[in-house]
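DATA SHEET
Item: assembly model
Revision: 1
Owner: S.N.
Input lines:
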Amino acid sequence: MHLSERIISMPSSPMRKLAPFADAAKQQGKKIYHLNIGQPDIATPENFMLAVKNFNEKVLAYSSSQGMPQLIDAIIKYYKKYDMHFEKDEVLITNGGSEALLFTLQAIGDYNDEIIIPEPFYPNYNGFANMAGIKVIPITTKAEFGFHLPEREVIEQKITNKTRAILLSNPGNPTGVVYTKEEIMLLADIAKKHDLFIIADEVYREFVYSDSGYTSFGNIKDIEDRVIMIDSVSKRFSACGARIGAILSKNKELIAQILKFCQSRLCCPTLEQIGATELFNVSDKYFEEVINEYRKRRDVVYKGLQEIPGIICQEPKGAFYVIAKLPIEDAEDFVKWLLTDFHLDNETIMLTPAKGFYATPNSGLDEVRIAYILNEDDLKQAMHILKVALDTYPKKK
Amino acid sequence: MHLSERIISMPSSPMRKLAPFADAAKQQGKKIYHLNIGQPDIATPENFMLAVKNFNEKVLAYSSSQGMPQLIDAIIKYYKKYDMHFEKDEVLITNGGSEALLFTLQAIGDYNDEIIIPEPFYPNYNGFANMAGIKVIPITTKAEFGFHLPEREVIEQKITNKTRAILLSNPGNPTGVVYTKEEIMLLADIAKKHDLFIIADEVYREFVYSDSGYTSFGNIKDIEDRVIMIDSVSKRFSACGARIGAILSKNKELIAQILKFCQSRLCCPTLEQIGATELFNVSDKYFEEVINEYRKRRDVVYKGLQEIPGIICQEPKGAFYVIAKLPIEDAEDFVKWLLTDFHLDNETIMLTPAKGFYATPNSGLDEVRIAYILNEDDLKQAMHILKVALDTYPKKK
């Protein structure tokens, strides 16, 4: 049977493809510290389930294709705190940030159009681009420079008459980079000059650990008609299983067009929207505590990495990831070996080989992504295990 | 700003585009009998919310990309009742039947490939094909013949080297047709001969009101590797707001490939999957009652239509829709007029003009879709209003 090129050419998830080896290790009784997925252990605010449990309609009916009005209002209110002012017809609720990305790509590009993304990047960007038939053109960034952007010329070289948008996550998954104000303004200027959209994936907006601040594309008045904000409750409120995201843009025509996609899939789930509405009402104290917790974890991981000879990485400034260059040839082999051939007192760690975060072939082969989503003690132990494992690994450089 | 061809060319939902006129009519104090949307008034089985309310995990975490194991097991068990035997790696849980359709189209076709669909059809088929860049090639069916399929030659004429699949809903939305065993076997034979997939949207499987039985594509052993079953809990359990659907196929390679799409959007919502699992445990008595209710409603609507001079329609045999040809020129004008210029004792009805269910231009202009999702008394009154309205309408043929 004939299957489509787009699906055949799509790579498997780099976060999930080594899962069978982890399962086998667990069956052998090994304890695994999972640093490979972005599933936080932070409790979801209780008001989510309280709101859901209060639902007492007899019929679980379709809701509005755009999203439930109370959730849209809650999101608008949340954005006001950041001095971003969206109106009701500038917001669409989606099935997670995932659907927000897919709909956005389908709205701005046709088959063989191009989008520019700094690599390493969240690999599902590739997945959605594949579905949409759009080509990903990477701008390579490096561990040595903390994954900051190259200069203007390098970026502009990538722009063709097929380029439709620049897509990036800030703070960055998988790198932990927080782009400087200068970088954001540079991209804004390039977008304006070349008539491109900026697809700003800011789902980790709150998770910034440096004092040098955070610049959102949503605050640049001059390009507001070309900024498409991708959002999600998953990480912000530790509610990954809710699958509630959003698209926001001051470009009303774009939102009106994407609403047609929303109408074709009818609506997002009712209960999850009811719960998500309450998430936006959590206190600022909730964020303070959560960010504090992640900052401590970031410190543990970064300190642990610094103590291992031969590792290259700069201090990550945001989100809850870091990409580290290891003193090895083949990170995928190393990660597999950690699961199949190594243990320290019957414990091991699981990391994500970074290869899958690059669009340029043979890039990031010696890099791994570490998600610091465990408590401090577990992270300390995990870093210790990494150190011992790198000492033991037979194929060390 | 440049938007994609695929989104610009996508029509708005025919079910939703007259909504502003309905809102205006309501503001004038008119009561509207809504026959225009497929949102049943039947209560969702209580065990859905009971299961959701029992959720007490601290973290609302990602679930499996494929779908939660207990839901997959429940669906497999449900299918066994119909003598269809799926294994765990032959099922994917999706965000409604909507995502099941989108992923399936993206998996079987590339840009400019073609799928064949009998028209009038569920207009979101068009939406998903648009998103995927796939062309819809219609086979026209007629009210006069109860929307049954034309003969083999007419169907085979539509097949080119770009054709990838035949997609159809059975029982049919919007027509209420239930295809005969001969029709199903004919399509199976054509699919085999021309190496096509059959995308079988059988979400209304239980809603069959004739004694002549129902033939599922899932029971044709000979073509099991080319049948892709689209399913959803929305109509079967009156749980439209849950947005839980499924793709099932004995073609394991296809399922393994589509799993990559599922992984890219991470998972479906956790709570809705927990609730949906329990839906599949409702008793057969639930279905008997619901089907009995819909049969009575079908009878009221069909009897009402028969009593109106000049209406052409055959008795609908399944789902909860009927398409009727009215003695008018322009159904869209008529539907709008019903909302803006007509009332009977301050009451009116809302219907869906059928034009949007056709891919062939200028088809179905004098037809409307009626969804019989109100109680019998309301439906009787609605049919009475339709009769009076047609008598009154100034542009009657």
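QC remark: The mean pLDDT of chain B is 95.
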